[in-house]
Amino acid sequence: MGYYGDEIRGGYIGGGKQGGFISQTIVLGGKLHAARRVAELEVSEVETSAQAQRVRILNNVRSYFYQVLAAQRLVEVRESLARLAADAAETSRQLSNIGHADRPDILQAEVEEQQAAMNLRVARQSLLASWRMLAAVAGKPDLPPARLQGDLDSVPDLNYEESVAATLSHGPQIKFAQQAVERAEASLVSARKAPIPDLQVTGIVVQSYEPLARPGSVTGVQAGAQVGVQLPIFNRNQGSIAAAKDEVESAKQEVARLRLQLERGLASLFRDYDAARVSIRQYKTGMLPRAEQAYKLYQANYQNMAGAYAQVLISQRTLFQLEADYIQALANAWQSALAIRGFGLMDGLAAPMPAR
Question: In sequence order, which residues have a C-beta less than 8 Å from that of residue 347 and are 6 or more positions away?
C-alpha cells in the first residue's frame, strides 16, 4: 500500500491526481512451498542436533557413574590391603622381638605398609575426582559425594554386527547427515524454481483535480490497474543452481564418509571391549581364584612355621594387584560398552552438532 501522485499542480489552474495504490506480488511456480520445505528441514536438523546432545549427556553421565563405581571398589581393595600391610608390619616387629624375624624382614614389611597407604590415598583422590566429573556432567557441580549403588560386574554382552547395524540405522550422526542431504536437495529445487516469474498486480484509485470544460468542476475519482511479470531472459539463477548441485553432492559424500568413520570407530571400540572382556574372564575364572588360594596356602604354611613370611607378603601383594587390575578391566569394559551403545557420543559438555 502507498501514496500515488501524478501531474501535481499540473494543468492551467493547478490540477493533478492524488490518491493511493495497492500492489500485490503473487508468487508462482511453487516457490513458497519449496522455501517452506527448506525451512522445515532446517528445523529438523536443529531437533536432531538437540537429540544427539541429549544422548551425549546421558552417555557421559552413565560413563562417569560406572567410573565412580569402579573407583569405590578400588578404594575398598586398597583399604583392605592397607590394613593387611599394617598388620604385617606389626607382626614383623613382634617376631623381631622374639628373634624370628630379621631387620630386612621388618624393613620390607614397613615398605609394603607405606606403599599400601600411599596407594590408598591415591585411590581416594581418584574417587573424589571421578565424583566431581560426574557432578559436573550431571549439571550439579556442588553435589556432595555419596556412595553409588550399581552392579559393576554385569558388563553387557554386545555383538559387533548388531551394533554396527544399529549405529548406521539409528545413530543421530547418520540421521543428521541424511537430513543435510534432504535439505540440500530441497534447496536445489528452490533454486530451480527461483527464475519462474511472479505475477505483479497493482490497483490505483485517485482523485483527479483536472478541470473540466465547465468552470468550477473537476474530473473526480479515477482508477487504474497494472498487471505484469519480470521475464528472466538472461539471469536464470544459474549460479545458485550450480552451487545447490555441489551442495547436494557434498552432502551425499559426507554421509558415505561418516558411515565409514563410524564403522572405524566401532571397530576400535570393540577392540578395547573384547580385550577387556577377555581380561575379565581370565581374572575371574583363572588368576584371581589361584592367587587367593596361593595366598591362603602361604599364610597357612607360615602359621605352621613351614614357610617364610616374605612369601606371604608377595602372595598378598599379587592377590590385591590382580583385584585392582580386575576392577580396571571392568571399568574399561563398561566405558567401551557405553560408547558402543551410545553411538560414540560421549562428551556431554562438548558443543552440539552445528545445524545450518
Answer: 56, 60
Whether the per-residue pLDDT at 38 is higher than 70: the answer is yes
Is the pLDDT higher at 161 or at 213? 161
Q: State the alpha helices, DSSP H only, in the chain.
A: 31-97, 103-137, 160-170, 172-193, 238-282, 288-303, 309-341
Neighbour tally for 313: CB within 10 Å = 23
The pLDDT assigned to 215 comes to: 67
Q: List the 2-6 sheet strands across, edge first.
A: 2-6, 17-26, 199-211, 218-229
Q: Pick the range with the lowest mean pLDDT from 229-233, 268-272, 291-295.
A: 229-233
What is the spatial distance between Cα 153 and Cα 101, in angstroms, rounded to a whole number? 41
pLDDT confidence of residue 356: 65
Closest CA to 65 of 150, 182, 157: 150
Find out whether 201 and 26 touch, Cβ atoms under 8 Å. yes
- Of the chain, the end-to-end C-alpha distance in Å amounts to 35
Task: With H, G, I as helix, E, B as strand and everything else as coil, classify residue 305.
Answer: coil
320, 81 Cβ separation under 8 angstroms:
yes
Residue bearing cell 566429573: 133
Contacts for 4 with CB less than 8 Å, ≥ 6 apart: 17, 18, 19, 20, 21, 204, 206
CB contact set of 343 (below 8 Å; sequence gap of 6+)? 55, 167, 170, 171, 172, 173, 262
Report helix, strand or coil for 125: helix
3-state secondary structure of 228: strand
Q: Dmax over Cα atoms in the chain, in whole Å? A: 146
pLDDT for the residue 213: 72
DSSP bridge pairs for 218: 211
